[in-house]
Design a protein that fits this description.
Chain A has helices at residues 3-15, 36-39, 88-98, 161-169, 185-203, 206-225, 229-248, 254-282; strands at residues 20-21, 48-57, 73-82, 108-112, 115-117, 122-131, 134-145, 148-149, 155-160. With 283 residues, chain A is an alpha+beta fold. The model of chain B has no long low-confidence stretch (mean pLDDT 93). The chains are: A alpha+beta (283), B alpha+beta (687). Chain A binds chain B through residues 67-69, 83-84, 86, 89, 103-112, 114, 124-125, 127, 131-134, 141, 143, 151-153, 167, 172, 253-255, and chain B through 11-16, 49, 144, 146-150, 156-158, 160, 188-190, 251-252, 258, 281, 283-284, 299, 301-303, 306, 308, 310-311, 313-315, 317-318, 320-321, 324-325, 328, 349, 352.
Chain lengths: 283, 687
Amino acid sequence: MDFQSIVLKLHDFWRARGCLILNPYDVETGAGTFNPATFFGTLGPDPWRVGYVEPSRRPTDGRYGENPVRFRLHHQYQVILKPAPADVQEVYLASLEELGLRLAEHDVKFAEDDWESPTLAAWGVGWQVWLDEMEITQFTYFQQMGGITLDPISVELTYGLERIALLLQGKESAFDLDWNENVSYGTLWREKEREFSIYNFERANVERIQQMFQLCSDECRDNLAAGLVYPAYDYALKCSHLFNILDARGAISVTERESYIARIRALAVGCAEAYMQKRGEDA
Amino acid sequence: MPDLLFEIGTEELPALEIPRLGKALQEEATREFAARRISCSRIDLYYTPRRIALIVRDLAERQEDRVEEVKGPPAAVAFDASGNPTQAAIGFAKTQGASVDELETREVGGKSYLYLRRSLPGRETVEILPEILPDLVRRLRPSKSMRWDDSGLTFIRPIRWLVCLYGDAVIPVRLGHLTAGQETRGHRFIAPQQVTIARAEDYEETLSGVFVTVDQKKREDAVMTALKEAAAARGGNYLLDPVLLTRIVNGAEHPVPVIGSVPEEFLDLPVEVVQATLHEEGKFVPFVLSDGTSPYFMGFRDGLPDEKGIVRAGFERVVRARLRDSRFFFEKDRTRPLADRVRELKSVIYDVRLGSLWEKVERIRTIAGMIAGALSAPPAEVDRAAFLCKADLVTELVRAFPELEGTAGAIYAKLDGEPDPVARAIGEHYLPRASDDPLPATPVGAAVSLADKLDTIVGALLVGEAPKGSRDPYGLKRQANAVVRLAVEKMVDLDFIALIDEIKESYATVEKKADFSEVTSFLADRASQVLRQRYGIPPDVIAAVAAAGVGNFYRTLLRAQALSARKAREDFVALRLGFSRARNITKSVERSDFDPGLFTEDAERELWREYLKAEGEIVRDLEAGDYARALNRLLMLKGPIDRYFDEVLVMDEDEAVRNNRLAFLKALSDLFLRIGDLSLIAVENRD
């Protein structure tokens, strides 16, 4: 099954289970969790079901397109189910079958892996799902988001699309994957991996990125002061991504690192609180 | 009497925590049934990743009856002169809901009181179970709790079903949104349907029919048998630590072995690297052959035997991808010699208050240099090993596999052509990591290990990180214990407390929250602890030898052992008495220079002569560390000392004579104190 067919299968599977099928966010994110459809979607009492692909940028994971399974950008398929259904494990496993994985022939384990994002002030409890000891999904019951204790609880399923495609196509390098019958993953992504790795590790202008971080942080705060939650959140996301670039560039010392994380966290918490306050006023 | 089954069905529990939770549930149940007076023969515990179950064997059908006694007013006020009950008796009976006829009189402490005895019949067990079982679960304290629905219930993972059967009767225990029944679930992939358990007694067998081995011991046996059979059939030894075993046993409801091969292309990697790669995240058990290669491994599938080899292929794919990473790291590391990396340690923070790792290495070099001689370790090799000992922390391999610290350094140093003792010392210098670990085998390794640990201890204490209660984030107690153990077992004839004084300069720039006296008292305290706990020295002997200083840990142990061996002997007890007199009388005396010309009594001249003979020999014995001989020599002073105190009046009227006697006794007492303060030895009372 080619890469794009996997995405379409998952869209179909989750659409049939009441999920909105949304798009990747158009601001850089490190994971599907940062997409507002998850960050804001998990807050508050209203039911929420959504599925989308999230190209996730992790500058420090870049390997110049030379490592077969590590990239500065990989693709997550993200599902949020609120409230968490009681049979969510079974439904998730059915989605793997739907992709053509015959689980009875494999070894599947739910291995403890509690998730935490210090920058989003969020944490949850769950597993890495291992198929024949390869991690293919992060499975989390969110407990907190943006510093707010969640009620009801959402469950997050994050499929690692490259990993799953490797299994389904029997390949060892992601760059050899078929995106469709004519175009390979490598054709689409290898050069981007190489250039972004050079940029992130060697070229990014530290001083300018630091200025950009400050500007985005200020912009976020001004928006929060004006009660504009969504524009504020976009700038919080930009701060997070700029921090990741500085980190990859080796421009952040151990002590600075904590203060950067605390700053982004404060912005995320501000956004979540403003969102909840607004919801309260609307209701 | 029937058994009771209580099964908590869950989503996959964290493998390493299941045993603790299971035992806690078992203990809570044991306590609860005892408190409720419901007897049982024992409580069996079973657990898998998806369930924790108790089977309470031969559970009584009802509580034991109980007799209740209520004390009432004194009999004196309860009956009038003609023996009729007064208002006091009537009122007591009324408030207890009894009649006056039921009251009896009993003597307590010489006075008579009214008593009401009544027997309370026990309640039916099935009535009580729904009240107590849910609370057993609620009382568990997992390391992390979560919510998953709106019931308010919390646990470490969602609870999805409950089974509660007393014999064949369902007990509808309620917890959260769940009500217990007799339906459980089989293996998630082989037998996912619901399964009915007919009777509590059938539990293990019924689940075994749906491919769930509920008995953790049987799963462990299956795993160990598979490993042993593979080792016997293919040769080699499996490398399995207890944590990995727990992960495997509690990571599957039905573990079956799957053997995979390490591709030949990776067999030239150092075997430690292959092992660490396989071991990573607790997935695979590596096997090592006698030629040092690690050509195969065993994983465990949760399910049925992998007849088509699909799982094996999957495992091998994971291993191959991992080993490819490891080879990449290894080859990248090998592009530069280890020595070139030392300067990179300047940019790695060891501790913000104590500087970079490079600064730590400089301190280790200084300290190791001072210790080398006592270990007869060649100073040049010690310095080279100290210089290189942390360089592997900036290699790719150690970043990927932190457990290879030291090991990776040793491999690289050897490949770089460093002298063999240097390479070995790098690999050994983290030893002992735990109290039962082996010590470094080489003197160079011991010197670097001691220096590294001392620096960690001194640094952390100076910046105010002394252990508090059970909180010891830097592991300082463990490290100090290791220092004492190394000093003692490697026979390091060195005063470590004096050494601390000599290394002060190395911490000149550290902003201190404590001073060096805290370091020395911490070390002295740990030395006492280790002598007692590890070497069995009694506390009174430790106190006695401590008076002569404990800084030389090795010699302190020797003195303590010599003293322990003699302390119960009768002549020693008498000697101790004589010494105590000399010591007590001279406590405030400072001078120990005396003039034999002022002696007047035969007894004091005799003791003086014996003292002169003994002193020279004892000083030599002490220097040679022959404390048994020194103590035996002291024992020869027993007679003269006893005679002295019998015949000589120390506190003579003539001040010059008196002071001269005190000074002499002070000198005598000081000689004893070079071994220890014998007066602190506890003497058993023989009367």
